[in-house]
Amino acid sequence: MIALTTPYLWYATRATGIVALLLFTGVVMLGTLVANRVGGTFIGRFEVNEVHRSLSIVAVVFLLLHIITTILDSFVSTGVLASVIPLTSSYKRVPVALGTVAFDLILAVWISSLLKLRLKNQTWRFIHWFSWLAYAISLMHVYTTGTDTHQGIGTLLVLGCAIVVALAGVWRFLGRPTRAAGRTALSPLATPPVPPRPRLPDSVPRDLPRPRVPEDFPKSPPRPPSSRGRR
Amino acid sequence: MGVIRRAGMFVLQVNPILCDGFGHCAELAPELVHLDEWGYPIIASDPVPMADVGSYQSARYAERGCPRQALHVAKVATPVPITNVDVRPPTTVSRGRRPL
């Protein structure tokens, strides 16, 4: 096949690798935003979550493209096995193995998220922590394997992604809200409690006045001074 | 085109142990969920008819969108008598509602 002997597959591998790196950086950042409960004002919290989920699918697609083009490409000889089993590539054995390990971890995170409604939430969360490890390993893979990451804009890109995700990790650790903090009446999401309207049988006319919050309903207590800490 | 009438009722239930008050449910199903002043959901325990397709769809979105999977859409096969309006004692017990 002609296509396998032209350098275009090799270029596609390099390009999709860089794009996948950028997309996964975005996915990790958005996941941190969800976990640290950003949103509720100009953007809904659920919207951040949805963007996180959707972008992760795009990122996985680019990662699959990156892997498939690498396998098909004849410029370097990596086998099909090397995409799943580490240390089976004849080209750059250890650097490619780093990418393989990262891919396996990402697969675990991805499949567990697809099965999220069928898993225990604790299980899903435990597997989801692997994404940080996968990101760190994939950064090492990018730096050690990458053809474009040793000079100029490529190095800056990798460095920028590393710094951004490292900061996101620090913020994830330090800025996480406690179980009940961040959701006082000061929180943008909090609304005054409205008693739910009782559901009436059909014999009762529907246009009854909505129950109102009494005027002397107790106001929310002041926010405690130490509202941050471990969950 | 005929109108599909959905039979039965559903209840959106929250597991208060799993809930961490992310507040996604109040955004996804505002007609079913109110937040208390700490951000935890208050959900009416009365069954909602399945024919209220909008509410049912919202409930399913909230179930899917909960970061802690604390929500559960329980299907109630038989309508439960409304005790706060009806003076008669409840005669039927709803099936399909799991104790939390």
Please describe the structure with a list of short key phrases separated by commas or semicolons.
heterodimer, A: 231 residues, mainly alpha, Four Helix Bundle (Hemerythrin (Met), subunit A), 54% helix, elongated, B: 100 residues, alpha+beta, Alpha-Beta Plaits, two-stranded antiparallel ribbon, 2 helices, 5 strands
Please provide a written account of the structure.
The complex is a heterodimer of chains A (231) and B (100). Chain A has 231 residues and is mainly alpha-helical. Chain A is built from six helices and no strands. Chain A has a single domain (8-174), classed as Up-down Bundle (Four Helix Bundle (Hemerythrin (Met), subunit A)), CATH 1.20.120. In chain A, helix 1 (8-35) packs antiparallel against helix 5, helix 1 (8-35) packs parallel to helix 6 (153-174) and helix 5 (130-145) packs antiparallel against helix 6. Chain B is an alpha+beta fold and 100 residues long. In chain B, 18% of the residues lie in helices and 20% in strands. Chain B is built from two helices and five strands, in the order βαβββαβ. Chain B has helices spanning 24-28, 53-65, and strands at 9-14, 33-35, 41-43, 48-49, 71-76. The N and C termini of chain B lie far apart (41 Å). The model of chain B has no long low-confidence stretch (mean pLDDT 79). Chain A binds chain B through residues 34-35, 37, 40, 44-46, 49-50, 116-117, 121, 124, 179-180, 182-185, 187, 189-194, 196-201, 204, 220, 231, and chain B through 18, 20-24, 26-28, 34-40, 42-44, 46-48, 63-65, 67-70, 82, 84-86.
